[in-house]
Amino acid sequence: MASFLNEIPRESLQNLLSCVRVHTSPSVPHTPTEGATPAPLLSSLGRGHVIEVQGPASSGKTHLLYHFVLLCIAPSREMSMDFGGNGLAAIVYDTDASFDVARLHQLLLTRLTLVLPYNREMTRRLAEESMQRLHIFRPNSLLQLATSLLHLPCYHTVHIPEHEIGLIAVDSVSAFYWPDRFIAEQMRNIPQLAREGPDPASVHPLQHVLTALGRLRLSHAPVIVLTNWALAPRSSGLVTLYKQHLHPFPLCSENDDPNTLLSSMLGDLPTTPVPLPLTHHITLAPVSIPPFAPELSLHDAVQQEVEYRRRMVQKGEIIGLVRTTGSREISRLTFCITPENIDITCL
Fold it and tell me: 249, 293, 303: which is closest to 271 by C-alpha?
């Protein structure tokens, strides 16, 4: 696996997304204020980009989301100082109950302190102003999520009219997968004659979520980030990728058409149109433990594994493989999670 990964181009997340930027059509409305110049969204990301972050448990999905949120809510410039943010509002739907506001605040303070190392009062004020641009909702079902998304324009107009929405994130879109699957199976067991009206199982609640996100993408053009569980591995060469377990869901395609499947990596899934085209797909995986030498004893192997795992946790390094719609190339990024910061680095 190491030799295969070495052949993949290595670059930072910012440089990578700069190279694959797709400009949104000028006809798409992107700001609630007429005549206003739209602010750049999340550094090199284009307006209306849709990013899926997929990976197994504890692979760094939420921490990568923290990075996107910080780029959105952090100030852009203050007193001729560049803070690298956009100063826009971020809307986060925390369906997994794993989004830690205290952790985000800590990471924000660290980043601001790098620019203002000797002005704690201004750092604290900027952090407080930035956190006020973060809005978190915790729906209990996909239907609640879809309803909240449909009413988000009204919420924006009433509660945050002074801030443009730069980011909408769902962490995680898989949170209700098992309950919804159980309900769908139960509904299929009900005789058709006993049902009133159309078949409730004919339209999956996820379809309503994607439709609502698609409308927001057209009306507000935010960057949309969807974290997703990795449940069904599918190996391609020496790298483990994952099948898509959510249906319907946008898939990353080698062609310009986002509904065309990347069948060699994702398996054979039905090609149904989706209301939310996927721009980038990021697959995360912690750095794997190297294989043990054949002559190593069981006792030494156990001790070596403990030492490897200790180093991995301390280093906090995560590898990501990025696929982009319209491209056959797979790019590689890495980031390190430390107690104080998230370092997006180039190997």
Answer: 249
